[in-house]
Every structure is written in C-alpha cells, then in structure tokens.
Design a protein that fits this description.
By secondary structure, the chain is α+β, with helices and mostly antiparallel strands. The chain contains two helices and eight strands; from the N terminus they run αβββββαβββ.
C-alpha cells in the first residue's frame, strides 16, 4: 500500500511540474514572441515544446491558398542562438531553412492549400558547463494576413 501511495504522490508531482512548465512556456511566448509577429495576425494556435540541447521536433501544419503567412520560431535564451527550423513539403523538398537565411521567420504565400512539415532543431551545445543538458521553451507561431 505504501508503494502505491508513493507512486501516486510522484505521479501527481510530475503532472503539476509538467503543467507549470507549459504555463511558463505559454507566458514566454505571449510576452517575448507574439509581439514580433506584427503586422501579421496570429491564427490562434501556439505550438510549444520544451526541447533539450540537441533535440528536434516536427510538426505538420496546414496552409491555405492565397494567404500571406509568417511562420516564426522563438526560443528561450538558454538554448542559445542556434535554434533553427526548416520547412519541407510532403515530397521532402526543403522550401525554407532558417539557418541558411539567418532569421527566425519566413514570410511566404502558398498557391494551393497544402500540408507542410516544420522541423525545429535545438543546438547540440549552447555553452553549458554542466553535464546536465539545458532545456528551454521553443514556440512555433503562425500569423497570416489576407
């Protein structure tokens, strides 16, 4: 019985910590990232992930024809300036690479409605002097204008 209570206490603690991290990530995005989306209007979706050094995340997003878009990736300073993203079509063709463009956003228009794959990569080592890899919030934000 003690083992079950111990397991439940740990599970509840981890759930609370996870919710707290997501709330902090959301606040970071609202204060630090969304203002940089101007003059585009946020589509109402904010996609956040907590990434460790060397991690990556993929997200499939739908883009509708004849709209102008700004796709932006914003990250906590602890991950350094090397967080970058690329956008690919379903055939694997790279449409944009922020590392090559040296900017954290892409302004574009699609001629037909399509799904695109957004891949975000955190740098391998941001100068962390400990053995514990740094982690931070990474937000993928989409804005549009008609």
């Amino acid at each position: 019985m003690k083992l079950l209570n111990y397991f439940l206490a740990i599970s509840i603690g981890l759930l609370i910590l996870s919710n707290s991290a997501q709330a902090q990530c959301k606040r970071f995005t609202e204060k630090q990232c969304l203002p940089n989306l101007t003059p585009f209007t946020n589509n109402g979706q904010i996609n956040n992930a907590t990434l460790f050094e060397g991690d990556s995340a993929n997200l499939v997003m739908t883009f509708y024809s004849l709209l102008d878009y700004r796709l932006m990736v914003c990250s906590h300073e602890v991950l350094g300036t090397g967080v970058h993203f690329k956008v690919q079509d379903n055939d694997g063709n790279i449409l944009f690479n922020s590392k090559e463009a040296q900017k954290n956003y892409w302004d574009f228009r699609v001629n037909s409605t399509q799904d695109l794959i957004v891949s975000v990569n955190a740098p391998e080592n941001s100068g962390n002097l400990t053995d514990i890899p740094a982690s931070g919030c990474v937000s993928i934000i989409l804005g549009f204008k008609e």
